[in-house]
UniProtKB/TrEMBL annotation:
Gene3D superfamilies: Winged helix-like DNA-binding domain superfamily/Winged helix DNA-binding domain. Residues 39-109 form the HVO-0163 N-terminal HTH domain. This is Winged helix-turn-helix transcriptional regulator. Residues 121-163 form the HTH marR-type domain. It comes from Halorubrum miltondacostae. SUPFAM superfamilies: Winged helix' DNA-binding domain.
Amino acid sequence: MTEGFDGRKRETLRRFAAVGAAAPFVGTASADDASEDTNETREAIRGYVPTTPGAHFSKLRDDLRLGTGEAQYHLRKLEEAGAIESVKDADYRRYFPAGRFDETDKRALGYLRRETPRGMILALLRDPDATGASLAGVLGVSRPTISSAAADLEDAGLLDRTDGYALTEPERLLTLVVRYADSFDAEAVAFADDAASLVAYAP
């Protein structure tokens, strides 16, 4: 590891650790892992997960500049302490602050963290009458890609394809996009800037 990378990692960990330190206290470090680096890393994860709920393992590891084994170790310890929880989502394991979200929220956040489903959700929130062809055009993907993502969203209970494409939980999805826009992408941030005044749902 280069000195420059190590410095960036420490800066990243400290930034999220500040958030984690402000979170409600859960558990404590055991005597065999109470070093400063261990505490800082664990607090960083405790700060990262509530601000990026539904992030999968690889994203969390890369965003916090952790090694694979290092991330696995601390995530396991935090789950054992009841600070975070995880759910398996297809090929991904996604992490959430413990007790914060219901199962529908978790499914919704999982799909919002996928580029094509998120793009479809944002487009349908903007225009509930959007067709498969128009969605493909807006997102710059093929119709089969839209159909596949739509089937996944329907299986998750987030989309009804009985008569076109209709979001089943638009208010919930709108709220999650607005609340966590910064953790998605620039398009979500722009959408949230316009939509924040419309939010009424409170999970």
